[in-house]
Amino acid sequence: MKVLLLDAFPLDSTDRGLIDAALDTLRASGHEVTRRVLCGGPFETFMSPEELAAYHGDNPLATPETIEDAAALREAEGLLFCYPTNIFTMPAVLKSWLERVLVPGVSFVFNANGKVRPGMTNIRRIGMITTSVHDKAATRRAGDAGRLTILRNLRMSCHKLCKRTFVSVPAGQDGTADVKRALSRW
Question: Is the CATH number 3.40.50.620 carried by domain 2-183?
């Protein structure tokens, strides 16, 4: 299976070992993994006026990075988000990627009646690996926006039988065994 792994951990994070465990596990299972490191790249900035204008136009993929990532997404069968949970949600760099790449024609399409239909029907597995300084109960009480966005809302744009994987590890702790166990089922 081709997997697109989105790495939104800060480059100096002590939790980057989780990404290495994910890569090792997926590759050992024979999956072809494309990794996108988002921190330090073009998704850390706000949309330019040109990107914003293009978003509402006929060609919303306005930069080489978004075109490349949309192409990788169209080829993938699995999508894995790796990020630290910040203030009970995903980091801004990942939100920026979602807004710029998951545009009309990529993540969703319109049918002849103008109804929204899934655009990522090639995605049969979607998952997330996250760390948090808060315990699971506090994160759930706060609404767990990252989990809802990815595993519920984004999944609706995927294949109708798309399976979900969720791994949450306390920040600073070794969760490589949890990551390996969860991804060995992919």
Answer: no
